[in-house]
Design goal:
Blueprint lengths: L2 E11 L4 E9 L5 E8 L3 E6 L5 E9 L4 E5 L2 E3 L6 H13 L1 E2 L3 E7 L10 E6 L3 E2 L11 E7 L3 H6 L6 H13 L1
Parallel strand pairs: 4-10
Antiparallel strand pairs: 1-2, 2-3, 4-7, 5-6, 5-12, 8-11, 9-10
Length: 176
Amino acid sequence: MRWEVLKSEHRYRCNIFAVRCDVSRSVSRGTEHEFHVIETNDWVNVVPLTVDRCVVMVRQFRHGIRDLTLEVPAGVIDADELPVMAARRELREETGYTCAALAPLGVVHPNPAIMNNRCHMFVARDVTLEGPPQWDGTEELVVETVPLVEIPALIRTGGISNALTLVAFQLLSLLD
C-alpha cells in the first residue's frame, strides 16, 4: 500500500505555500504516477468562548470561493512558533480578544491527499476583549459573537461551511 518516491521537485513557490511534484511507484503494483502536493506550514484554529457561552467568530471574504464565510479565528503557524503561541496570536490579531488559557482540542490533516500540513485546534474559554483587532494587510474581517447554542443550526443551514471550523466545533462537542 505504500508508494516509493522516485523523483521530487518544486514547481512553484510563493510566500504561503509551495507546489511539489513527486513521481512515485506503487510498491504492490509497480506502476508509476505523478502526484502534486501543496506544502505549507501547519495552521491553528481557535474556538473562543466568552463567559456567557458565545463564540467569537470572524466573517471574511475567501478568494477561493469568492464569497464570505463565518469562521473561528485561524491562521498559519510561523516557522519559529509553537501552535499554542500561534493560537494566542491569531485570536488577538483577528478579534482583539485574549484568554488566560488555551486547551487543545486535537490535530487534523486538512487534506492529506494533496497537502502536507496539519491544523492544531484549541478552545479558549472566558475570552475578554482587550482592544481592536490588528489585521495584516490582506485581512478585512467582521468580528461577531454567536451564542454557542446557535452553532448547530448555522452548520445545518450552511451558515458555517468552512470544513476546519466544522471540525473544531465537532472536537469541542466531544469535550462538552
